[in-house]
Amino acid sequence: MQLIKTALTMFAAAAGILSQSCTADTRVPAYANIGYEGAQLYADASGKQTQENRLAYGEIIEFDANDKSRFVKVRNIATGVEGYVDTINFNKANYPLEAPYIFDDEQSECSLLSIETTDNAERISGWTFWKSGDAVAAFNSVTSVYDTGRMFTQENYYIGEAHPGYIILTQRVEYGEETGEKLETPIVIYEDIASRAGIFEGGACFTPGGQPGGFDTDDWE
């Protein structure tokens, strides 16, 4: 009987250790937006061997919240691209993963803007999204205004899907159409889960009014 009790005690202790080990190894998913200058991907946690791919400003990554290393393994939630990133190059989420705001009805103007100024021109790009049946419709406008007074505007419509944290656009369509030309490389729109200022696309930030943080700072002293 004593031998049986001893064996049971040893089994219980081993099970407890195993349980603690499994708990300690449990991965806790956390999310972040890549910071302003983008992020280089590395092959491992040493941060010495670079990979070919880089992550652009605003892309959303998943990583292990338990990892306290300087270089942590990350995965882009939309593209699946993986690698190691220096934690200084991303902004941890303060908000849950939610798709960028989608209007119920069709929109004729872009609600979120990005303004780029050069020596001789100003480029205003914008996005807006609305429900189209089970899909998401998107309107993108790019207007270039030159110091000569000339102005050019390009407008495109897209169809895609909404996912937690992002919208992926897979087809370019004509206005009012529900199907069109499949994009060779889908366009991914990421939600700002760090500060909720706007959205990110192609390494650019789009906010209401096109101002950093989504508001006008011209009157600041």
Characterise the protein shown here.
The protein folds into two domains: 2-92, Roll (SH3 type barrels), CATH 2.30.30; 112-214, no CATH class. It has one helix and 15 strands, in the order αβββββββββββββββ. The protein has one helix at 2-25, and strands at residues 29-34, 39-42, 50-55, 60-64, 71-76, 82-86, 90-92, 112-117, 121-132, 135-146, 151-163, 166-173, 181-191, 199-201, 204-206. An eight-stranded antiparallel β-sheet has the order 8-9-10-11-12-13-14-15, with no helix packed on it. It has a five-stranded antiparallel β-sheet with strand order 6-5-4-1-7, with no helix packed on it. It has a two-stranded antiparallel sheet with strand order 2-3. β9 and β10 form a beta hairpin. 24% of the residues are buried.
Unreliably modeled segments: 1-23, 214-221
Rg for CA atoms:
23 Å
The overall strand count is 15
The coarse silhouette is globular
Judged by helices, strands and strand pairing, the structural class is mainly beta
Average pLDDT, rounded to a whole number, is 87
The biggest beta sheet reads:
8 strands, antiparallel
| Helicity level | 10-25%
SSE succession: HEEEEEEEEEEEEEEE
Helical run tally: 1
Number of domains: 2
Distance between the termini: 83 Å
SSE diagram, text form:
Layout: H1 2-25, E1 29-34, E2 39-42, E3 50-55, E4 60-64, E5 71-76, E6 82-86, E7 90-92, E8 112-117, E9 121-132, E10 135-146, E11 151-163, E12 166-173, E13 181-191, E14 199-201, E15 204-206
Antiparallel strand pairs: 1-4, 1-7, 2-3, 4-5, 5-6, 8-9, 9-10, 10-11, 11-12, 12-13, 13-14, 14-15
